[in-house]
Please model this.
Amino acid sequence: MPWIVGVSGASGTPYAAAVLRALLAAGEGVDLVVSRASRLTLLDETGISFRDAHWREDLREWLSRGADGKPDSFDVDVDVTGVRHWAPGDLAAGPSSGSYPTKGMLIVPASTACVAGVALGLSKDLLQRAASVTLKERRKLVVAVRETPLNGQTLRHLVTLDDAGATVVPASPAFYAGATHIQDLVDFVAGRVLDAAGAEHDLYRRWTGELGGGAGTT
Ligand SMILES: Cc1cc2nc3c(=O)[nH]c(=O)nc-3n(C[C@H](O)[C@H](O)[C@H](O)COP(=O)(O)O)c2cc1C
Model:
């Protein structure tokens, strides 16, 4: 069964790329939904215009880029055969129904608009509908919210999501895992998102209980 990966219009498209690379490397199937608004953040952060009609080549290009948005940081020939792409306006798509089997859904990054929409059950597009379906089916939903500061309204929506069974994973990197590059910080957040889903990965160095593993001490 695949994971649904929803990419919404918060800053942080490198987080989505890192999660997607890791899932594909682990041989997981992915149902991908890229919101309309996230095309703007992707364009801003990588220079890529994501087109539904050319999603394979645009996705390959996106996954080949690292945190600095520069091309070819990762294997240019990323295998995207495990990905099924759905247009965000396609409310008849598989993930819109609970009878479509999935392991769950990762929203990475999650905008506050998306958080609000899922908390209120708006289903304004396929991404939000798939998240509502994931909750109603009691499947795993991981929400990697990216905004700062957070207002009370968003905080209340996040509590609603937590109460509904979602795991909220703020996109907040830590510095104990020996980060020396921006990509290490990206991979830390992506790794914590995958941890929350229970998906295998090798994206960051785990805490061992021994102090002294940070970048300043190595
Ligand atoms: C360049 C850019 C960066 C943005 N960054 C954020 C962000 O970090 N967090 C956030 O909640 N919204 C951010 N937004 C606003 C969202 O894109 C906007 O609220 C949009 O309606 C979200 O729609 P979606 O959830 O359907 O993708 C950003 C917008 C742009 C254009």
User: Anything to note?
Assistant: The chain has one domain: 3-201.
